């Protein structure tokens, strides 16, 4: 309407917009809509995942029935193509029943243990002025290793500790080092003649932090050494075996496992229980849980200045391929 006709002109800015309340209500409705759509997406993803899992189980059952029907004529199972299964060939890989390896192992530093002439006696100590978590880790190691003793190192030199341990007829020495008040490395010295190994400690989880963990017993555990395939791997595995008595008490159903995967050694401590039928077993983790990485192996007892190193990990020179492993 024009001014001449008696009306008044209304500017665009005078047109009332939506109130604050309506804006707020619209934002809330939008957010609710987003929440609903997100929950729908999550539910759809779950349903798709369950459907795929059911289809996979169905295919597995069909293949199983087919293999049972064909018997010996059935096609063998395919080996999954992983980094581990496609590892580069190593000239030090040990074949089954290798006479040279068997001869060497019959006369190495660990032969007296495997001939049952020596009973393990383990001493556990730590870096000088160790903090609470390092002590705690030492106590958890003592729980796993039967008959192990713990002594405070204070400020005594490591070479002197090795001498004293030999005098007191200890067969193995474990020295736990720490950084930022947490255990981060371990020196493992086999007495009295060596060898000595240095490991980095990663992914340490104490027993109390493991969900549904059980209580350990005093029974001698069974020891599982898995996937140590090279000459170096055999030496490391034999070192670990020497920590435990050679006569496991199967009544306790306690198992200590050292599993090597891509040169990382996973330590696990379990107790197993048989089901009613006796065909299946359930595992209860006892703790602790940690991973070791070998950094060097030295002949003889601890001597970083004049000692002879059998093997040293030089990352930039040796780790040239993702599929090259040394244990």
Largest beta sheet, briefly?
11 strands, mixed
Give the strand tally. 11
What is the typical, i.e. mean, pLDDT? Answer: 85
Q: What percentage of residues falls in helices of 4 or more residues?
A: 25-40%
| Overall geometric form | globular
Description:
It comes from Mesorhabditis spiculigera. The chain is 31% helix and 24% strand. It has seven helices and eleven strands. Strands 1, 2, 3, 4, 5, 6, 7, 8, 9, 10 and 11 form an eleven-stranded mixed beta sheet that branches. It starts with 19 loop residues before the first helix and ends in a 9-residue tail after the last helix.
Summary tags:
single chain; alpha+beta; 7 helices; 11 strands
SSE blueprint:
Elements (H helix, E strand, L loop, with lengths): L19 H51 L28 H8 L4 H4 L7 E5 L5 H13 L4 E2 L7 H10 L4 E8 L2 E9 L5 E10 L16 E5 L4 H11 L12 E8 L2 E11 L6 E5 L3 E10 L10 E4 L2 H4 L9
Parallel strand pairs: 1-2, 1-3, 6-7
Antiparallel strand pairs: 3-4, 4-5, 5-10, 7-8, 8-9, 8-10, 10-11
